[in-house]
């Protein structure tokens, strides 16, 4: 009996941690995205010795991150303009949801192209990161609160 109670309590805690809420989930996904882009940039700049398998692993991680970015759930309409819990989300997201979704689609397309290219060296990786970074920058410019 004690074991089953402990197991249930542990599962409840794990479920709460895994699904903290839309604000926490989107912030975690964006932090993961930033860290992955940082790792890829180090490969492209030669700061980290190039390893094609590791680069492809990072690109796949970025691709999986994009697939988890469910805008309708993470930036729900019921949250319209509420940035109190997420100071980095500008109200413009809810004012221009179609534009916000289009920017995310550009990111996902650029990442999918990089994964498909499977760059063999830093010279091939750099041009693939350009469109991904440009997508991130455009979205931050338009939809991130300062």
The oligomeric state of the chains shown is: single chain
Number of domains: 1
User: Strand fraction band?
Assistant: under 5%
Helix content: over 70%
CATH superfamily label: Cytochrome c/b562
Give average pLDDT, whole number.
87
Rg over alpha carbons? 18 Å
How would you spell out the order of helices and strands? HHHHHHH
Supply the number of helical segments.
Answer: 7
Distance between the termini: 52 Å
Total strands: 0
Could you name the CATH class?
Mainly Alpha
Summarize the structure.
The protein has 146 residues and is mainly α. Helix content is 75%, strand content 0%. The protein is elongated.
Structural summary, described in words:
- The chain is mainly α and 146 residues long.
- The chain has one domain: Up-down Bundle (Four Helix Bundle (Hemerythrin (Met), subunit A)), CATH 1.20.120.
- Helix content is 75%, strand content 0%.
- It has seven helices and no strands.
- It has helices at residues 2-18, 22-45, 52-68, 71-74, 92-95, 97-117, 122-143.
- Helix 2 packs antiparallel against helix 7 (122-143), helix 3 (52-68) runs antiparallel to helix 6 (97-117) and helix 6 packs antiparallel against helix 7 (122-143).
- The longest helix is centred in the first third of the chain and has 24 residues, at 22-45.
- Residues 1-17 have low confidence and may be disordered.
């Amino acid at each position: 009996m004690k074991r089953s109670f402990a197991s249930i309590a542990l599962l409840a805690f794990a479920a709460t941690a895994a699904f903290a809420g839309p604000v926490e989930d989107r912030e975690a996904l964006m932090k993961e995205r930033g860290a992955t882009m940082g790792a890829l940039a180090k490969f492209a700049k030669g700061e980290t010795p190039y390893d094609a398998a590791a680069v492809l692993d990072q690109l796949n991680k970025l691709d999986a991150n994009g697939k988890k970015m469910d805008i309708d759930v993470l930036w729900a309409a019921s949250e319209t303009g509420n940035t109190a819990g997420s100071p980095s989300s500008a109200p413009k997201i809810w004012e221009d949801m179609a534009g916000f979704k289009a920017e995310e689609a550009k990111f996902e397309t650029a990442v999918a192209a990089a994964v498909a290219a499977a760059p063999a060296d830093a010279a091939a990786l750099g041009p693939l990161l350009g469109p991904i970074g440009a997508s991130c920058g455009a979205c931050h410019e338009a939809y991130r609160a300062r």
